[in-house]
Write a structure and sequence with these properties.
It is a single chain. With 260 residues, the protein is of the alpha/beta class. The protein has a single domain, classed as Rossmann fold. 27% of the residues lie in helices and 17% in strands. It has 8 helices and 9 strands. The strands form 2 sheets. The chain has a 6-stranded parallel sheet with strand order 1-9-8-5-2-3. A 3-stranded antiparallel sheet has the order 4-7-6. Helix 7 links the parallel strand 8 and strand 9. It is globular. The termini are far apart. Bound molecules: the ligand O=C1O[C@H](COP(=O)(O)O)[C@@H](O)[C@H](O)[C@H]1O. The ligand O=C1O[C@H](COP(=O)(O)O)[C@@H](O)[C@H](O)[C@H]1O binds next to loops.
């Protein structure tokens, strides 16, 4: 197996509005590239502030130029609540993004909200394996795990990504594609999440991070500062096979300016 990993780019913008514009162009360009290359575009969403920052993608010119029928949608993590619940990452994306563009309903992979956290994780993993069998998802030649085209990730002030939290052991899971947690330190407690082997097998990853409250953790994530407790948080473990691109607004990047 090949062992080479991709590069890292850090983009800083004057405002969250500028991050939103740049993220829309970046996503539209990747959509065009992957659809030309392989006829489809597999996109993994997060919850949180990301969905609002994606707002420019559902406005002209992208709303009309993107080949939405070729998109496949997944979630890097999901709260185990009914899909119509206000805590659901699916509902957040449906209201803010998916209801505004013509992505085929059969290409949208929400969790099974009738299952327990353990059952929902096993069900999601089984559905990903079926998509590998049907060749919708290739396997990474580096890791052997399913390889998504683009993951759009956020980060919490504690350095969590997806639902992989600093103080929880499932951040170290190396075998499963999808795991679960019943005691998330951030509510709601029951969640499922992609594991790092799957996250880090993506071709492209965008880390979309805005706001001053996250500035110290951005400094840690980018290796300019040590973690307060000396233990590297999950955000320091993210890497992509082609390119990891950080989208930061001025506030999120404010601690980086002194350190370069
Ligand atoms: O709970 C979650 O938090 C993270 C970060 O959210 P943000 O609002 O600080 O951007 C998010 O990426 C994840 O999907 C979500 O479940």
């Amino acid at each position: 197996m090949a062992t080479q990993k991709g590069k890292k780019t850090v983009l800083k913008f004057d405002s969250e509005e500028d991050v939103s514009k740049a993220l829309a162009k970046y996503t539209a360009d990747l959509s065009e590239k992957f659809i030309k290359q392989k006829g489809s575009f597999t996109v993994v969403l997060s919850g949180g502030s990301l969905i609002d920052t994606m707002r420019k993608l559902v406005e002209p010119p992208y709303k009309d130029s993107i080949e939405w029928s070729k998109w496949w949608i997944f979630w890097v993590d999901e709260r185990v609540v009914p899909l119509g619940h206000d805590d659901s990452n699916y509902k957040l994306a449906l209201d803010g993004f998916l209801s505004k563009v013509p992505i085929s309903f059969s290409n949208i992979y929400a969790i099974n909200d009738k299952e327990s956290p353990e059952g929902a994780a096993a069900d999601y993993e089984a559905r990903l394996k079926k998509l590998v069998e049907s060749k919708v998802l290739p396997l990474s030649a580096i890791s052997g795990f399913p390889k998504f085209d683009l993951m759009l990730l956020g980060m919490g002030p504690d350095g969590h990504v997806a639902s992989l939290f600093p103080s929880r052991p499932h951040r170290h899971e190396k075998e499963r594609l999808v795991t679960f947690i019943t005691d998330s330190p951030k509510p709601p407690p029951p969640r499922i999440t992609f594991t790092f082997p799957v996250i880090n097998s993506a071709s492209e990853i965008a880390m979309v991070v805005t706001g001053a409250e996250i500035a110290n953790m951005v400094d840690v994530a980018l290796g300019n500062a040590s973690p307060p407790d000396g233990i590297p948080p999950p955000c320091t473990e993210v890497s992509a096979e082609e390119e990891l691109t950080w989208f930061l607004d001025k506030d999120a990047a404010s601690k980086l300016q002194t350190s370069g």
